Amino acid sequence: MSVRTPLARVEGLGAAHRGTEHFTRQRATAVALAPLSIWFVCSALALVGADRTAAAEFLAQPLNAVLMALFIIAGLIHMATGLQVVIEDYVHNEGGKVALLLLNKFFAWVVGAGAIYALLKIALLRG
Amino acid sequence: MAEQAKKGRARPLSPHLEIYRWPVTMATSITHRATGVALSMGTLVVAWWLIATATGEDAYDTFSKIARSPLGLLILFGFVWSLVYHLLNGIRHLVWDAGYGFEVKTADRTGVLVIALSVIVAIAAFAFAFLGTGATS
After folding, report:
1. What number is the ipTM of this complex?
2. Which of the two residues, A21 and A117, has the higher pLDDT score?
3. A113 touches B at CB < 8 Å
4. With a CB-CB cutoff of 8 Å, which residues 11-70 of chain A face chain B?
5. How does pLDDT run across A8-25, given as a tens digit for each residue?
């Protein structure tokens, strides 16, 4: 039995100290992605028409490699969090929903693993 | 009404979505979601580009060739616009999360601003990158 008011119990992280992670994660990655995506668009547009050597040299620069890795990781977490809500909103069939939610997570991990592996290969072999 | 009830299933329905006039806020909201889903597919383009660069000349040439095709350019433009839109409207959402900008007039204005800016920035960025480099040829 607690003498704390109901409001005090749910303030901050809430009574369970969790459950708001989804909301927080979505916002935290959004804040991180704002500058990262500006950097990404500028870099990608600067690389239009570049040959493979130029693209690889750009990605092998330590700062670019780290920013690209951060962009990919923050982007994929933001993506998986967002798509989860879309699936939960529109897919009402329980089996289909579970399957799609699982697929959503797998998709993020597979794309992330492929992209990060490629990035490491470029950055470390040329660094 | 009694007759309708006898017929069985003809219960009154709430109006379907398509009869509503679309307010700016409704359009920007669903577009935010749509561009988010589109950007999810866009991650495949980014991953493909990185993997092709890591793999070799042939893989990179294949990517370049497809990216420069009319369909490829259309997809890339859609990707850039989606990213710009989602970024600008995302900032609008973060401002809402902080508790500001909820007045109908303000929300309408920022919505129009986001739509206009996203188109302008996407076209400007694309023109800047592609004119002059001759990348489309």
Report:
1. 0.87
2. A117
3. no
4. 27, 30-31, 33-34, 37-38, 40-41, 45-46, 48-49, 51-52, 55-56, 59, 68
5. 776 776 666 677 889 999
| B16: phi then psi, degrees, rounded to nearest 5 | -70, 155
Mean pLDDT of A84-112: 97
The predicted model gives A39-48 an average pLDDT of 93
Question: What integer is the mean pLDDT of B63-74?
Answer: 94
Long-range contacts of B19-24 (CB under 8 A, 24+ apart): B23/B108, B24/B107, B24/B108, B24/B111, B24/B112, B24/B115
Task: Report pLDDT digits (tens) over A46-92.
Answer: 999 899 999 999 999 999 999 999 999 999 999 999 999 999 999 99
Q: Do A55 and B40 touch (CB under 8 A)?
A: no
State in words which class domain A32-126 has.
mainly alpha
**A122: closest chain B residue by CA:** B54
* CA–CA min distance B73, chain A (Å): 11
Provide the residue ranges of all domains of chain A, joining segments of one domain with +. 32-126
Rounded distance, CA B102 to CA B98, Å? Answer: 10
Query: Taking the model in full, what pTM does it have?
Result: 0.86
Q: Which chain B residue lies closest to A60 (C-alpha atoms)?
A: B54
H helical segments located in chain B: 2-7, 24-55, 57-68, 70-97, 104-130
Domains in chain B, ordered, with CATH? 24-130 (1.20.1300.10)
Minimum distance, in Å, between the CA of residue B71 and any CA atom of chain A: 16
Quick check: B39 and A83 in contact, CB under 8 A? no
